[in-house]
Design goal:
Blueprint: H1 18-31, E1 39-45, E2 51-57, E3 60-62, E4 65-71, H2 75-82, E5 85-92, E6 97-107, H3 110-119, H4 122-130, H5 140-153, E7 165-179, E8 187-193, E9 201-206
Antiparallel strand pairs: 1-2, 1-5, 3-4, 4-7, 5-6, 6-7, 7-8, 8-9
Length: 208
Amino acid sequence: MGGKPDLSLELDDLAADPIGQFRRWYEDAEAEGIHLVNAIALATADDRGAPAVRHVLLRGFDDRGFVFFTNYESRKGRHLGENPFAAFALLWKELDRQVCVTGRVQRTTDAESDAYFASRPREARIGAWASRQSTVLAGREELMSRFGELDAEHPGDDVPRPPFWGGYRLEPDTVEFWQARAFRLHDRFRYTRDAAEPSGWLLERLSP
């Protein structure tokens, strides 16, 4: 941690619900100017429980959960079709903070996927059509050839969303906030969904 101040995290510092707390930390990370502030390491597993992890970009969050977009036919899309649970970790090293989330995943609505897809640059929309994500390529030329064909097929800005591409929302069951402290005596708090709690969440401190 090389000379950074030893930041603390106390129970009284935390919001009543994890989305509110996540929003606070996310805004802190944005204010810090962290590159790819929304990069998350997303873990999925197939129907046998065999896991895989990769980085994706978090494209939104609200009281319903955390949203990302991908090709439904990709490895993560296939996993989520077989096993609709996932987890992600987000590290803001500059702030010595980490957030870990677990929960059930379901697709966003077509309207949500259409709206996000329309906001992407045209070339990224063409790329979503061109990439048969996670399948084997004979060479880059094959990919670029498909891109060129689709670029010619959609010469204007009106590039529709592929039926095999869209969003997922991870609805959290647990959200953990981790603040690094000296001597590895870190502060860790976990929110667990609990209908018996007034806020709908049980909040507990964990050993580091």
